[in-house]
Amino acid sequence: MFAGGMLAWTAWSKPVEAAGKRVFYVPVEQDIERGLESFLRRAFQQANEQRADVVILDINTPGGDVVSAGNIGALIRSAPMKVVAYINNQAFSAGTYIALNANEIVMEPGSSIGAAAPIDVQGNAAPVKITSGWAQMMEEAAKLNGRDASVAKAMVYIDQDFAGLKKKGEVLSLGAEEAQKLGYADKIVRSKAELFQYVGVNESEIVHISPTPTEKVARFVTNPVVLSCLLLIGMLGVIIELFAPGFGVAGTIGILSFTLYFFGHFVAGFANWLDIGLFIIGVILMILEIFLPGGIVGFLGFASMSTGLVLAAYDTKQGLTSLGIAAIITLIVAFILAKYFGLRGTWGKFVLKEEQHRDTGYVAPKNQNDLLGKTGVALTNLRPAGVILIEEQRIDAVSAGGYIAAGSEIKVVQVEGARIVVQDWKNESKG
Predict the structure, then answer these.
(1) Are 174 and 147 in contact (CB under 8 A)?
(2) Distance, CA of 61 to CA of 44 (rounded, Å)
(3) Which keywords, in A-to-Z order, does the entry hold (predicted)?
(4) Quick one: pLDDT at residue 332?
C-alpha cells in the first residue's frame, strides 16, 4: 500500500515521460477576474519550470473583467509552450478572447463561443471608447492564428450589421460546427479522451493544476462586488461597535471582514506588507484619538487606513470607488444610530453623564433679574466686591465703578446670572 501511494504521488507531482510529452491541464472557470489571473500565472510558471510541451486550458466561463482578460491573453502569448483552449460548455466574452490567444481551439458539440459585447456592472452596454478598444483587442487576438478578424468584431458589436454573420441588434455566438466552418475551432471532440488523443498524450500522463484553497478565497475576495461588500461590512461592524457597550459580534465581524479583504488580496499578489502596515497604523491612530481628542490624530488614522485599503485592491480606481460607497453608507448608518439610539459605547465616553442633585449639595443659580433697578444699602465696603442689603436680603455684589463705603445707598444697575452690579445711588441722585 505504501509503495502504491508513493507511485501515485510521483505520478501526480512529476509528469511521466513515457510518451515524450509533458501536458498540463488547467481549469479556467467562473468569472474572469484578478484572482483567476493570479492562479493562471502560477500555473504557467509551474508548467514552464517543469518544461511542459502543452498547456490545455479548460475554459468554461460567462466572461468577466476585460483588464484581467487582457493580462491573461498576454500571459498565453508569452508562454514558451503550445497552448490549447478546450471549450466543452461556453467561452463567452472575455472567455472568447482568452481562447483566441491560444494556439489552437478545440470544442465539444453543444459548446459555444462568442457573445463578446462588453457591459458595465449594471448590465448596460459599455461606453463607445471601451467597446472600440475591446473590439480591437478581439480582432488582434483572432489574427494571431490566421482567423477571420471580422468574426471577432461581429461578436463585439451588437448595433452593427455583419453580412453573412448577424443582423443589427443580434448577439453573435457560434456553436462548435459553425465555429469550425469559420475557422474559430480547429478540432471538434466528443470527450476529454478524444481531446487527449488529439493532443497526443495519455490521460494518465496529464498533470492537473487546480486552485489551492487560499487561491479560491483570493478569487472570491477580489470579485468587485465581494470587495465592496467586505469593505462595507468591515466599516459598519466597527461603527456599530462604537455605539454598543463592550466588544461584541459587530466588532468581530468587522475585523474578520477586513482580515479576509487583506488576506485575499495578499494571496492574489495585489497587497503587500506595506499596505497592511498602513492599515494597522491607521487603526492604532484611530484608537489614540479616543484618548487624545483634537481631530488631527483621528484624521491621520483615517487617511492611513484608507490608503492601505485602496493600495491593497487589485485596481486603485476600483478600490477608491468601493471605499467611497462603503464610507457613504457607513456615515448614513452612523447618523441613524446616533439619532435613534444616542451615543453609547466608546462615543458615550465623550458625553457627561453625571447629574447634579439638590440632596447632594448642588444648587442651581437663582434667577435674580427682579433685582434690576432696586435700591438698598451697602453692608460692607465694595472694593469692588462686597455685600449689600435689599429688602432684608443679603446679596453678594460688585461695584460698577470705584469704591463704595459701607452704609451707602446703592442701586442695582446690571444683573448677569449670579453677578449683581451696583452703583452709589446717593451720589448719582445728587449729581
Answers:
(1) no
(2) 19
(3) Hydrolase, Membrane, Plasmid, Protease, Transmembrane, Transmembrane helix
(4) 84
Cell 463585439 sits at which residue? 156
**Count of other CB atoms within 10 angstroms of residue 125:** 13
94 closest CA partner among 63, 133, 136, 58: 63
- Which residue, 113, 114, 23, 106, is CA-closest to 58? 106
Nearest-CA neighbor of 373 among 423, 418, 408, 426?
Answer: 423
Domains of the chain: 11-211 (3.90.226.10), 215-350 (no CATH), 361-430 (2.40.50.140)
- pTM for the model: 0.64
382 forms bridges with which residues in the sheet? 404
Pick from 135, 18, 141: nearest CA to 72: 141
Closest CA to 68 of 90, 92, 38: 38
| Tens digit of each residue's pLDDT (9 = 90 or more) over 162-171 | 877 878 878 8
pLDDT in tens, 176-220: 999 999 999 999 999 999 999 999 888 878 999 998 888 888 778
